[in-house]
Backbone:
């Protein structure tokens, strides 16, 4: 028979275990009571995917705070690291920049790049990467189709050769594209060309609708534009993406990224977002982006209509 001292000790341990469980539960409930701050970068696709996430969380009765179109990558990344935001769509290829691993070929493999980003951010920053969409939204250089045809430019090798021979290129791009090692510098290094300041029109923010429009309308002599692989405005505005035959760019698959504390408080978020992201392939994203950038529809309505059509939102 257990003696009295053992019995008392067992009761104390049991009570401590109960109190620890109750405390953990109360902390989790307190976190769950806080709205989830959903953000995005300041571009068309970021706003679209952000609206998809807001709609899905709202439908599951998860309170949210809208911080969409927050800023370029460095602003949004700093915000989630500081805890100012909780959830946003990021691109797998950007992890090469986050962890100073630009030269690693892993980022050019969709699956391996995602797994590396997921592991590094969880270990170092307690950030959780959920499964990405089956799309590659890498940066591209696009030109007016009539101009490209006139100069026989269909690949970036063609573009580089034409530029080296003194071709009058004027590229509209964001500061992030010009400065990031995975942006313009990667294209220049891979294809052996160089653009000076006079050949660049650097625009604030990262919204490619502005760079594409500048090229389409030849604003300030612009005939080339930074764009994304999933941009819906390219065809509609008569621009053509030059083929990246040497694969200068990493794979940029959009994925939800959230703070570990939020994942603990709302473990259902993974299952809520997975079906929608699985549907966002290249053609679907181009089509949805076009509805916003070209047809002028509100991102919120485009997102909700998409979810309703696929039975993911009532």
Residues:
């Amino acid at each position: 028979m257990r003696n009295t001292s053992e019995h008392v000790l067992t009761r104390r341990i049991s009570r401590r275990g109960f109190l620890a469980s109750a405390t953990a539960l109360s902390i989790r409930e307190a976190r769950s009571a806080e709205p989830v701050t959903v953000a995005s970068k300041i571009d068309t696709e970021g706003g679209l995917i952000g609206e998809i996430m807001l709609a899905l969380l709202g439908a599951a009765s998860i309170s949210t705070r809208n911080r969409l179109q927050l800023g370029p990558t460095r602003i949004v990344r700093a915000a989630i690291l500081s805890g100012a935001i909780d959830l946003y769509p990021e691109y797998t290829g950007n992890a090469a920049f986050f962890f100073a691993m630009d030269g690693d070929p892993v980022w050019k493999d969709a699956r391996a790049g995602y797994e590396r980003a997921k592991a590094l951010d969880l270990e170092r920053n307690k950030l959780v990467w959920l499964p990405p969409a089956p799309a590659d939204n890498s940066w591209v250089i696009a030109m007016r189709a009539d101009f490209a045809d006139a100069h026989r430019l269909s690949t970036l090798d063609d573009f580089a050769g034409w530029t080296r021979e003194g071709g009058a290129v004027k590229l509209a791009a964001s500061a992030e594209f010009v400065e990031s090692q995975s942006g313009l510098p990667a294209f220049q290094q891979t294809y052996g060309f160089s653009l000076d300041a006079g050949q660049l029109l650097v625009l604030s923010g990262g919204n490619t609708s502005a760079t594409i429009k500048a090229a389409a309308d030849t604003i300030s002599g612009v005939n080339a534009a930074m764009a994304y692989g999933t941009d819906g405005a390219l065809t509609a505005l008569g621009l053509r993406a030059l083929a990246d035959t040497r694969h200068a760019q990493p794979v940029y698959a959009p994925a939800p990224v959230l703070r570990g504390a939020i994942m603990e408080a709302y473990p259902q978020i993974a299952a809520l977002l997975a079906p929608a992201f699985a549907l966002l392939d290249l053609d679907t994203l181009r089509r949805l982006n076009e509805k916003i950038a070209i047809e002028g529809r509100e991102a919120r309505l485009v997102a909700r209509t998409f979810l309703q059509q696929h039975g993911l939102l009532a």
User: Anything to note?
Assistant: The CA atoms of residues 196 and 296 lie 34 Å apart.
